[in-house]
## 1
Amino acid sequence: MLSLPKKRSFHERTFTENVSSRGLRAITKRLWQPGAELLVTFAGEGIQRQASVAYCQRLKRKRFAVGLKLLMRVWEAQV
C-alpha cells in the first residue's frame, strides 16, 4: 500500500513487482513525480518504510508503474 507521509487520509493498494531490499516497482492509478516521498506498507508483514519516487512510467488503462527507492532496507529495522 502507498500513502503520503503527511496525508494519512490517502491510501492506495498497489500491485508490486521486482521487490528487493533497496526498492520496488509498484503498479498504481496515480501519476507520481520523481523525488516525491511516500510511505510503503508491506501487506501481511506489518512493515512500513519511507521511499522516494525514482521514476513513473505511463502504462495502459490509466495505470502507472512507479519505481520506489526505499530509504531504509526492509531487514535493517528488524535487527
## 2
Amino acid sequence: MTDDTTTLPTLTGPDRLPTPLERLAEIPEEQIWLDKQKSKRTRRAYRLDVQHFMRTLSITTPAELRQADHKAVIAWERFMRETEGAAASTIRRRLAALSSLDKHLKDRRSPFRRRRRARFSTRR
C-alpha cells in the first residue's frame, strides 16, 4: 500500500474555494471600466456621475443600469438642466461619463470589439 498523506484534499461542491480566474470573473464590468481610467480625479468624478444617474432614476443594481436606454439619459439630462440647474459643463461631463461606461459595456459584449494591436517596426 502507498501512503497518500502528502496529497492535499480537493474541495468540491459548495465548500470549494473559487479559483483566481473565477474571482476575476466576479468583478463587475462597471468596476473594470472605472479602474481603467488613468486619473484618480477622473475615476472619482465618473463614479459620482454614474451614482448620480442611478440615484436620480432610482436604479439600484448593475443589471438595471445596463437596461437604461436613451430615453432615460434624456430624462436625466433634462432633470439636471431644469430641476437642478446644473452648469452646462457639469452636464457634459456627466454625459461623457455615462457614454464612456456605455461604450465599455458594448465593447465587452461584442465579439468584434476593437483590440489594440502591437506595433512593430518595419525598419531594418
